[in-house]
Design brief:
heterodimer; A: about 425 residues; alpha/beta; four-stranded antiparallel sheet; about 40% helix; globular; B: about 160 residues; alpha+beta; four-stranded mixed sheet; about 20% strand
């Protein structure tokens, strides 16, 4: 229903809307070393909006009890809130059913869970697990552990110099031995957005299972797991403006129903005797012990918040900020941008000739600018570019072009200090 | 910015720009590699020990200004010292670097140029950068040919 007034109201520009949204994030108004904070470490973790902070404190102040046990009022309330959170996540990802959503401790735990249960039931000696050179260590090491246990082998999709996957070389890796494809949706170090559909189709043609690491994608682009047709999709709450301590594992119900439990304990059984235990159906089968209840309520609120901002404005703002950053960085003579992918998600990685990223990180920090300096848990990727580390500026929709200019000015100080 | 200048003193910048004793040592009797897995820094320390005395010492690798300058200053300050002197020097230096800022060095401990490393005391995460080369030297002298990492570091 549109009121006659709304057509007369001056439309709010994106810049004005972003300024207003920044007020939802108390931490963005803090000072660091006497300067206003410029927070460009969003790929590590995002700041939290007031609604998320509020629902979590409210939960502890007024609703706290354990879930799935006890008939008292608070336990039932907690259970309802927890299961409502699962429904919110399922709707957000376009899953068929809330029972396809398992809450974990984070992306890393989600990947380890799947790697270990698939390792038990699917992997034989000589089988192959395909991943890419772009992966975060959390999508490498769990599979290496399974390879060691089962005698399977890792195959690695190489990247092109610009940081895109080398499709031609990568597609040749698939064959009858391929059991699993584990692929990042977005690279945490370069920002490369991978076009998943051809890879997922190819893996499925070989009868392989597909896990997508969406930790860096979900804050920046809408995800529809049903349209993607991946078997598993994983991400963390805290990179999505939600709390730490919670991650999501989406799994197709056809897979989850066939898989054995990962951890044993309370909450994941239908009956226990000392002779035999009957396991609960998914998702409870994979959620042993008391789950992260407040965090589940927090992630659901973060999703509602994100949806209220909308991916259109999120992408418009993040693209503007990233493009402005790239433009300004290219003006610096001694700069080398690491990765120039065709499609980029709000992450910019660079090195300055003769100045170690760590030193740049410290100099920027002293001027209130928070960036990540290091190998970004992607050592094979650093090896590819023959750098020990990079400086990474990773943006959220609440960042502005003005903040980019502050970073560029701060970089000038680093050049001045080390250029002597 | 003033604390930046105390971290990146001219002597640190100089040793970062032109590190002394940088490179491989052909006749090394002891060597070790050190890594800082948090930032990807790598250092390789070579020592030629004769009669328990450091005749030659060199290093190579990649690291930040603090780590490079600290290794460079280390090679300068330890050349000619005995094994025991070198190890106890490191103990005193480590003690100094992990004290709160403005704490004077322990009595009788001559820091010399290494006083310039004192700036890291305001940056706890950078103490590891300043000690990577030294930990690696310690590993080379004590065990020889060992790889050390800063994580986890029971001594830092």
């Amino acid at each position: 229903m549109s009121s006659p007034l709304s057509s007369q109201t001056k439309p709010v520009s994106l810049a004005e809307r972003i300024q207003a949204l920044r007020d939802d994030f108390p931490l963005l108004h803090e000072q660091v070393h006497g300067s206003p904070l410029v927070y460009f470490d969003n790929a590590a973790t995002t700041q939290k909006p007031r609604p998320v902070i509020r629902v979590m404190s409210e939960y502890f102040e007024k609703q706290n009890a354990n879930v799935h046990r006890g008939v008292h009022f608070l336990s039932e309330l907690s259970t309802t809130l927890y299961e409502e959170a699962r429904k919110t996540v399922a709707g957000f990802l376009h899953a068929h059913s809330p029972s396809e959503i398992i809450f974990t401790r984070g992306t890393t735990e989600s990947i380890n869970l799947i790697a270990q249960v698939l390792g038990q039931v699917l992997i034989q000696p000589g089988d192959e697990i395909i991943l890419s050179e772009l992966e975060h260590h959390s999508n490498i090491v769990p599979w290496q552990l399974i390879c060691e246990k089962t005698g399977a082998h890792l195959r690695v999709i190489p990247i092109l110099e610009n940081g895109d996957l080398d499709s031609e070389a990568g597609m040749r890796l698939f064959g009858p031995k391929t059991r699993i494809l584990a692929l990042a949706h977005v690279s945490n170090a370069l920002g490369t957005v991978n076009h998943l559909t051809p890879w997922i189709r190819l893996a499925h043609e070989q009868g392989a299972v597909v896990l997508i690491d969406g930790a860096q994608a979900i804050p920046h682009l809408p995800v529809d797991v049903t349209a993607l047709d991946c078997d598993f999709y994983v991400f963390s709450g805290h990179k999505l403006y939600g709390p730490t301590g919670i991650g999501v594992l989406y799994g197709k119900s056809s897979w989850l129903e066939r898989l054995p439990p990962w951890q044993g304990g309370g909450d994941m059984i239908t009956s226990v005797t000392f002779q035999k235990t009957l396991f609960a159906a998914p998702p409870q089968r994979f959620e042993a012990g008391t789950p992260p209840i407040a965090q589940a309520i927090g992630i659901a609120e973060a999703i509602r918040y994100l949806e209220s901002v909308g991916y259109t404005d999120i992408q418009n703002q993040e693209n503007q900020v990233a493009e402005h950053a790239l433009r300004r960085l290219r003006e610096i003579p001694r700069i080398r941008l690491i990765g120039e992918p065709r499609e980029r998600a709000a992450i910019v990685s660079f090195v300055l000739d003769g100045i170690h990223p760590h030193d740049i990180g410290t100099v920027l920090d002293q001027q209130g600018v928070a960036v990540r300096a290091g190998h970004h848990c992607a050592m094979p990727l650093m090896e590819h570019y023959r750098v020990p580390a990079t400086v990474r500026a990773s943006f959220a929709f609440y960042n502005t072009e003005n903040e980019v200019d502050i970073m560029i000015e701060a970089l000038g100080k680093a050049l001045e200090l080390f250029g002597r | 910015m003033s604390s930046l200048l105390s971290l990146y003193q001219e002597i640190i910048l100089d040793h970062n720009r032109s590190p002394r004793n940088f490179g491989r040592l052909e006749h090394a009797t002891h060597e070790a590699q050190g890594f800082n897995p948090l930032c990807g820094d790598k250092v390789h320390v070579y020592v030629e020990l004769t009669d328990s005395r450091i005749r030659e010492i060199a290093f190579e690798g990649t690291g930040c200004a603090i780590s490079t300058a600290s290794s460079s200053l280390m090679t300068e300050s330890l050349k000619g010292k005995t094994l025991d002197e070198a190890l106890s020097f490191f103990e005193s230096l480590r003690g100094f670097l992990t004290q709160p800022p403005d704490t004077p060095p322990p009595a009788g401990f001559e820091l010399g140029k290494l006083a310039a490393l004192g700036g890291v005391r305001q940056y706890p995460t950078r103490v590891k950068c300043a000690t990577l080369g030294w930990h690696t030297l310690q590993a080379a002298l004590k065990q020889g040919g060992l790889t050390v990492t800063t994580e986890p570091d029971p001594h830092a």
